[in-house]
């Protein structure tokens, strides 16, 4: 178990390192900051002084080393627009994003798992077909279309809910609904297929043949085994929610990190973009680590055995 | 020397790691453990043994598919390496393999004719298309395939035909060495005979050196000039087929031979060995066969018998090689 | 020598014959036919777009701003109405379909090439090269691609080639995993080992033997990748950081139409519908292909 935890931890660190390196490469590819910062008429001495001050005249690996030190200190430069550390700008927006992300994750998991389980237990029933057709729409309808359609119906036509803003709990409903509907569809699909697979395995049929009550079969034998793929989907869905949040926050004028990201790209506030990239990276890596460890708890086979790529 | 295969002290060990502990314990599986033999040019050596005796590992070592832990394989004066570099690929022109599973060894998406001609494309890219086709047709004729089979795909052929395709593909380069790993075991008995006839035909015509691996003694007796009996990665007996099969000296060979049903011999004469061969991870000390040997002597448990040759025949058994020691050891054992 | 066989069908088959229509519908479900027809239409539009547009998709007509579609109070002059600048929505939709479909296909092609190449490299070298590739795959899986794409566009600026290359990285990790797995299993047994045995070079083994044999699976993975690319492209364009005006794409149209959601919802609904139906069709077709050809993918 110790070895399992430590290898997972190591993998998470390697992934983090790759993400940081990626950010550094993209930053450098974007061009020499000195050239971006000064207009061509600036005297060469000034440019050179700037370069020296920021270490741009150092070899690339020294720059990389300094970059990593800076990342570790959370020192990632200032936001151009707000003229304060980019980290502060981003952290100020974090609560708004969490307000829609956390309920979404709960909702779509509960709805998705419940719908998927019901569909699997009553396979080929009308309910099953309904869930499966709905789930296809769930991942072919883009978040922005769903968001706009929901806004059109509930805000523009029915006028039940506000179409955007960040004032009352009512404002949360449409963004959360948009993200949950798409997510729940995918969760339902995965839950159903992993349940169906487990239900067909010999030990489940044996349990049923021995006369174990069907409710017990499901809770004792099927669920623990079906939980593994479901947990995987959860990690995968987290990434989808993060991606979807960018779109949904923009549509509903929700002042979260996603909207900040879009507006920072448009105004080329690169420090902020970089902080968001790294922040999401850290978040994803640690939630994946958590899910990996959860695996180890659910499935004893995972602890010692070789790991597959995802 | 051309076509001469020399194997010196060839071993292949696999290290098995047992997970779970912080300090993983490693164990060694000795799949092939010190093989030494020669195959003269044009000779066909048969290797027999039950599953797990290291026959297939030997085949792969001979061709350089896997690297040897120690020892070497020399073919035609050149050492056979296990790194698939240019020299290794060139060497394929001279040595070829025939597989147990002909369907698996054929590309399902390429016609038979093209597959037989592929070695020519690989090794002689300058050869014209027509010359290649003519050569393929000739080889197909030699193994008893008609020319219309050339446009077929592997799944459209019968098992025997597929094995002929494999043989044809191996022969198209006119190799000096052919290693056959259970080439007819997957075939029906009637088809086996046909394919073996093809083998002997082609050998009479081209005269290649061969190593023929099989668990089937009858097949080996029919085709081999010399037979080696393997047990747990070692050769326990080697000699001419009539000698080995009619007067086996090693107790293990005797048990093997007695297992072949023969007319006029009662089933009771069969020597039934007790238990399975020991796990190759824990090869017992002394003679590896002593755990199952019906004539085991105390010395067999302590000292490993060497393969000693006498007049082209070699046996690794204390009882045969120095019966006196064995007897003395018995006396010692009884005294103790 | 006629032998009477009661109770058996005339041809001796133990399978019951299906009626022609039912057998046809079993292999070609109506949904699949609809999906294929729709995709055929999209490809047709993508190829012949300049010949099909009634107006230039960039032509501004201030006198005909925000005209509703026909049957909603509009005229046949602009069948699907006009947008805030008086541009014909139908013409813009046709031009957008061409751009979106072309980008999706190019990007998927790129990601397939990248994915297969990396998968084969990992399978050929194994060892630490394999580990490096797998680690990058893991890292890619850990980051939402949308975020990476936005960041890259922010730093590198936006141009059509960069945009297409970026979308071309979407889904490479899936293809890499599939190609690597299939190549490794082909290598350990059977035809690839046999090709190696006759002395074929690695290039020949991988391109002449392994690639044709795994192509069906790769094509399915490609098909299943397309909806994701379309969604990503349209989402980025919708946010205004994807394709830039005067270029137009379906996501772009929705993005600009959303300001008129109250007064002129048709500007945004029409391209939205096209996106949804297209991604739906591609995934229906992909699932169907997978079930028919190779049920082992994913």
Can you describe what's shown?
The complex is a heterotrimer of chains A (310), B (336) and C (298). Chain A has helices at 2-29, 33-37, 44-54, 60-72, 86-121, 126-140, 143-157, 170-199, 202-209, 214-251, 257-266, 270-298, 301-304. Chain A has 310 residues and is an all-alpha fold. In chain A, helix 5 packs across helix 8 (170-199). Chain B is 34% helix and 22% strand. With 336 residues, chain B is α/β, with parallel strands linked by helices. Chain B is built from twelve helices and twelve strands. In chain B, helix 3 packs across helix 4 (129-142) and helix 5 (159-171) packs parallel to helix 6. Chain B folds into two domains: 5-94 and 175-279, P-loop containing nucleotide triphosphate hydrolases (Rossmann fold, 3-Layer(aba) Sandwich); 106-172, no CATH class. Chain B has helices at 55-62, 86-91, 112-123, 129-142, 159-171, 189-206, 217-223, 241-246, 251-258, 298-302, 318-321, 323-335, and strands at residues 5-18, 25-39, 44-48, 70-75, 78-79, 95-98, 177-181, 209-213, 226-231, 234-239, 308-310, 313-315. The N and C termini of chain B lie far apart (53 Å). Chain B has an eight-stranded mixed beta sheet with strand order 6-7-8-3-9-10-12-11, sandwiched between helices. The longest helix of chain C has 38 residues, at 202-239. Chain C starts with 19 loop residues before the first helix and ends in a 5-residue tail after the last helix. Chain C has one domain (22-293): MetI-like fold. Chain C is globular. The model of chain C is unreliable at 1-9 (pLDDT under 50). Chain C has helices at 20-27, 30-52, 89-125, 127-142, 145-156, 160-167, 172-188, 191-197, 202-239, 250-257, 266-293. Helix content of chain C is 68%, strand content 0%. Chain C is built from eleven helices and no strands. Chains in contact: A-B, A-C, B-C. At the A-C interface, helix 1, helix 6, helix 7, helix 10 and helix 11 of A face helix 4, helix 5, helix 9, helix 10 and helix 11 of C.
């Amino acid at each position: 178990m110790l070895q399992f935890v430590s290898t997972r931890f190591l993998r998470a660190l390697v992934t983090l390192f790759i993400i940081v390196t990626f950010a550094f490469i993209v930053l450098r590819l974007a061009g020499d900051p000195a050239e971006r910062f000064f207009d061509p008429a600036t005297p060469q001495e000034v440019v050179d002084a700037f370069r020296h001050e920021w270490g741009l005249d150092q070899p690339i690996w020294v720059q990389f080393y300094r970059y990593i030190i800076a990342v570790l200190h959370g020192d990632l430069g200032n936001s151009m627009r707000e003229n304060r550390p980019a980290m502060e700008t981003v952290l100020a927006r974090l609560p708004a994003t969490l307000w829609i992300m956390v309920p979404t994750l709960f909702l779509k998991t509960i709805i998705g798992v419940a719908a998927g389980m019901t569909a699997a237990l009553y396979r080929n029933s009308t309910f099953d077909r309904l869930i499966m057709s709905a789930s296809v729409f769930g991942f072919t309808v883009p978040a922005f279309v769903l968001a706009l359609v929901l806004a059109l119906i509930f805000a523009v036509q029915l006028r039940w809910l506000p179409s955007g803003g960040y004032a009352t709990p009512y404002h949360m409903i449409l963004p959360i609904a948009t993200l949950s509907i798409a997510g729940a569809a995918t969760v339902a699909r995965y839950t159903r297929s992993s349940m169906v697979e487990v239900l067909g395995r010999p030990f489940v049929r044996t349990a049923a043949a021995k006369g174990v009550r069907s409710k017990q079969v499901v809770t004792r034998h099927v669920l623990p085994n079906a939980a593994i793929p479901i947990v995987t989907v959860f990690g995968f869905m987290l990434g989808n929610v993060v991606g979807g949040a960018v779109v949904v926050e923009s549509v509903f004028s929700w002042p979260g990190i996603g909207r900040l990201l879009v507006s920072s790209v448009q105004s080329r506030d690169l420090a902020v973009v970089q902080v968001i990239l790294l922040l999401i990276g850290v978040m994803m890596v640690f939630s994946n680590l958590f899910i990996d460890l959860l695996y180890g708890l659910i499935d004893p086979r995972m602890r010692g055995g070789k790991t597959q790529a995802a | 020397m051309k076509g001469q295969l020399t194997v010196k002290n060839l071993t292949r060990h696999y290290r098995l790691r047992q997970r779970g502990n912080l300090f993983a314990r490693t164990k060694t599986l000795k799949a092939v453990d010190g093989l030494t033999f020669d195959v003269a040019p044009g000779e066909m050596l048969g290797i027999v043994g039950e599953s797990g005796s290291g026959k297939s590992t030997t085949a792969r070592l001979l061709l350089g598919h896997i690297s040897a832990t120690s020892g070497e394989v020399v073919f035609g004066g050149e050492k056979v390496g296990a790194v698939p570099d240019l020299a290794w690929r060139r060497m394929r022109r001279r040595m070829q393999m025939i597989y147990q599973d002909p369907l698996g060894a054929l590309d399902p998406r390429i016609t038979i004719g093209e597959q037989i001609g592929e070695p020519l494309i690989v090794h002689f890219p300058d050869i014209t298309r027509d010359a290649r086709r003519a050569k393929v047709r000739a080889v197909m004729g030699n193994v008893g395939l008609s020319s219309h089979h050339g446009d077929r795909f592997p799944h459209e052929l019968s098992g025997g035909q597929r094995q002929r395709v494999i043989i044809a593909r191996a022969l198209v380069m006119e190799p000096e060495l052919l290693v056959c790993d259970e080439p007819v075991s997957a075939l029906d008995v009637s088809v086996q005979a046909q394919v073996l006839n093809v083998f002997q035909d082609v050998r009479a015509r081209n005269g290649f050196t061969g190593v023929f691996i099989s668990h089937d003694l009858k097949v080996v007796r029919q085709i081999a000039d010399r037979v080696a009996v393997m047990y747990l990665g070692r050769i326990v007996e080697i000699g001419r087929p009539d000698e080995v099969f009619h007067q086996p000296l090693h107790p293990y060979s005797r048990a093997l031979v007695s297992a072949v049903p023969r007319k006029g011999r009662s089933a009771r004469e069969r020597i039934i060995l007790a238990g399975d061969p020991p796990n190759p991870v824990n090869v017992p000390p002394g003679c590896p066969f002593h755990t199952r040997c019906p004539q085991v002597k105390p010395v067999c448990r302590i000292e490993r018998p060497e393969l000693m040759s006498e007049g082209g025949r070699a046996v690794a058994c204390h009882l045969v090689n120095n019966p006196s020691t064995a007897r003395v050891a018995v006396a010692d054992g009884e005294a103790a | 020598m006629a032998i009477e066989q009661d109770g058996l069908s005339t041809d001796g088959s133990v399978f019951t014959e299906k009626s022609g229509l039912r057998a046809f519908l079993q292999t070609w479900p109506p949904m699949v036919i609809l999906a294929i027809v729709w995709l055929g239409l999209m490809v047709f539009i993508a190829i012949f777009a300049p010949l099909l547009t009634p107006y230039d998709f960039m032509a501004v007509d201030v006198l005909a701003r925000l005209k509703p579609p026909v049957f909603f109070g509009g005229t046949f002059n602009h069948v699907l109405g006009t947008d805030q600048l008086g541009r014909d929505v139908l013409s813009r939709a046709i031009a957008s379909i061409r751009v979106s479909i072309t980008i999706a296909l190019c990007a998927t092609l790129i990601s397939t090439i990248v994915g297969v190449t990396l998968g084969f490299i990992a399978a050929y070298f194994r060892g630490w090269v394999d580990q490096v590739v797998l680690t990058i795959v893991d890292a890619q899986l850990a980051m939402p691609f949308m975020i990476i794409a936005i960041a890259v566009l922010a730093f590198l600026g936006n141009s059509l080639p960069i945009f297409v290359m970026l979308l071309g990285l979407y889904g490479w990790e899936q293809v890499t995993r599939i190609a690597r797995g299939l190549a490794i299993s082909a290598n350990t047994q059977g035809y690839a080992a046999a090709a190696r045995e006759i002395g074929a070079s690695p290039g020949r083994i991988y391109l002449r033997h392994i690639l044709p044999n795994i192509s069906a699976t790769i094509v399915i993975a490609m098909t299943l990748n397309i909806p994701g690319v379309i969604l990503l492209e349209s989402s980025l364009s919708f946010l205004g950081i994807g394709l830039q005006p005067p270029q137009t794409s379906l996501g772009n149209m929705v993005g600009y139409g959303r300001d008129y959601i109250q007064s002129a919802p048709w500007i945004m609904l029409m391209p939205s519908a096209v996106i949804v139906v297209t991604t739906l069709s591609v995934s229906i077709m992909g699932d169907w292909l997978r079930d028919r050809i190779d049920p082992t993918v994913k």
